[in-house]
Design brief:
The complex is a heterodimer of chains A (315) and B (153). Chain A is built from 14 helices and seven strands. Chain A is α/β, with parallel strands linked by helices. Chain A has one domain (24-313): 3-Layer(aba) Sandwich (Rossmann fold), CATH 3.40.50.1110. In chain A, the strands form two sheets. Chain A has a five-stranded parallel sheet, sandwiched between helices. A two-stranded parallel sheet of chain A has the order 5-7. In chain A, helix 5 packs parallel to helix 11 (220-235). Chain A is globular, with a radius of gyration of 21 Å. By secondary structure, chain B is mainly α. Chain B folds into two domains: 3-83, no CATH class; 89-141, no CATH class. Chain B contains six helices and no strands. Chain B has helices spanning 3-21, 23-32, 40-62, 66-76, 89-107, 124-141. The longest helix of chain B has 23 residues, at 40-62. The model of chain B has no long low-confidence stretch (mean pLDDT 86). Classes of the chains: A alpha/beta (315), B mainly alpha (153).
């Protein structure tokens, strides 16, 4: 029995040591070229792009669904597309943007619909990777709810540092088609100077599966969080607008009731809303690889709608 | 009970009956062709044919209607079966892991359970390394909880 206990304790200790080391190790070469690290360049845009500015905040519906050049040409504002990936969570995205706001900035939130349900807005696995690997200073600013959401991903995060393939140089990994495509679409070099993903613009779109019905409860506190963000934006002399993501028509139908609930609650809170959810639904031919990712043509159409809605709101 | 489930049961039954009534003729055929019972190619053929037939019958179990199941099967055997699938990096890794599992099953195919003798003759250090690697794999590639297919009733 004594031998069993000693060996059990020894085994667990070794496992814990490997786990701790994994957390302390820097990001793997492959991870450090992933889209999460685009945050550094995007933060630099927020810091350095001169006014007048329009700042887009949201998940990949923006990075894969906006043509910022059209925004610049039509509205005469300098666009900054801050979006990286939805699973960083809307709360983190808003708080990160707030510190860089300047007087006169126009901030447009375009959040994926599931952010308003359950606790998705507080982030997931990619928030953990962001605050440990990309921007450790922001880890101290996370709230209790955010830590509660991301804590469970710590073992996975730690052990991901031991994947041998992640230490192979990109040029070798690119010899494997699946990795090459992943690097092309979700890598540091996927973005243009405004923060839009453009590497998929010349690729054929994929067959896109629809999302099922959103089953989680509507989270009223997220609307309150946006309202609180709105107050802080106003204090900085900036303006907040909320728009809706470009979304697959079939997925829209699957969660129509929930999406209309999002719109209803946002309207109750008196935000400046740009358009409505049904204006931004798209057929499969305009989708690239997920219900939120648009092709070049889709992104252009969406951007045109957005420009019209912004002009209408500011008449 | 859905009709698809009944059909699944009937198909399983038919496959078992075919297996039983062809046992002797198959043995005779193998003998005539001078193929040993433990022939590796024969084993691979047996594994693959059993796996494919059982998986196809499960389509009826899982589908809402028999029509859906037939549509699903017809799409599997459409022209796309000859084209190279687009596989994500993660799926590719999972396929490699599955092949690794199959290799274990193959090595231990003569035993009642493939890994029943695993670890015998291996030093404790190597065994622990294997355990730790398995734990890391489980944590790294575990997905979200899925209801087992039987629980849909």
């Amino acid at each position: 029995m004594k031998k069993f206990l000693t060996e059990t304790i020894l085994f667990i200790s070794i496992l814990l040591a490997i786990f701790t080391l994994g957390i302390l190790l820097p990001a793997t070469p492959r991870a450090s070229k992933s889209l999460l690290f685009s945050k550094i360049a995007k933060d630099s845009l927020l810091e350095n792009v001169p006014s007048p500015r329009i700042i887009f905040v949201g998940g990949s519906n923006l990075s894969f669904g906006l043509n910022s050049q059209m925004i610049k040409d039509s509205l005469g504002l300098n666009p900054i597309n801050t979006s990286v990936i939805a699973s960083i969570g809307l709360i983190y995205m808003m708080e990160n943007t707030l510190q860089y706001l300047k007087k006169g900035d126009h901030v447009v939130i375009s959040s994926e619909y599931d952010m308003f349900f359950g606790t998705h807005a507080y982030g997931g696995e990619n928030l953990l990777r962001t605050v440990i690997d990309v921007s450790p200073v922001t880890a101290m600013k996370l709230r209790k709810e955010q830590w509660q959401n991301i804590f469970i991903y710590l073992p996975k995060f730690s052990f991901s540092k031991y994947i041998p393939l992640d230490y192979f140089p990109t040029e070798y990994l690119n010899m494997i088609p699946a990795y090459k495509k992943e690097n092309l679409l979700y890598g540091l070099k996927s973005y243009n100077e405004y923060g839009d993903v453009i590497t998929h613009w010349n690729l054929h779109n994929e067959k896109v599966q629809s999302f099922g019905t959103i089953t989680e409860e509507f989270n009223y506190s997220i609307v309150k969080e946006i309202a609180s963000f709105n107050i802080k934006v106003k204090e900085k002399g900036a303006f907040l607008y909320i728009t809706f993501p470009g979304f697959q028509a079939r997925s829209f139908e699957n969660s129509k009731e929930q999406i209309l609930k999002v719109e209803e609650e946002l309207r109750k809170s008196d935000f400046k809303l740009l358009g409505n959810p049904s204006r931004y639904i798209f057929s499969d031919s305009l989708l690239f690889n997920t219900p939120y990712h648009l092709t070049k043509e889709g992104a252009d159409i969406r951007t045109n709608y957005l420009i019209e809605d912004i002009k209408r709101e500011n008449k | 009970m859905r009709r698809g489930v009944s059909l699944w049961g009937i198909l399983q039954g038919i496959l078992l009956v075919i297996n039983h009534i062809t046992t002797k003729p198959r043995r005779r055929l193998l003998k005539r062709l001078n193929i040993q019972k433990d022939n590796k190619f024969l084993a691979i053929f047996d594994y693959l044919s059993t796996f494919i037939l059982i998986m196809l019958s499960w389509v009826f179990f899982r589908s809402e209607t028999i029509g859906n199941a037939l549509l699903y099967i017809s799409r599997i055997f459409s022209k796309s079966i000859l084209s190279l699938p687009e596989i994500s990096a993660r799926s590719m890794l999972l396929i490699i892991i599955i092949l690794f599992f199959l290799l274990f099953e193959w090595i231990g195919r003569a035993q009642q359970f493939a890994i029943e003798n695993f670890g015998i003759g291996i030093t404790k250090t190597i065994r622990w390394v294997i355990y730790i690697v398995i734990i890391m794999f489980i944590i790294q590639y575990s997905g979200t909880e899925q209801k087992f297919i039987y629980f849909q009733f």
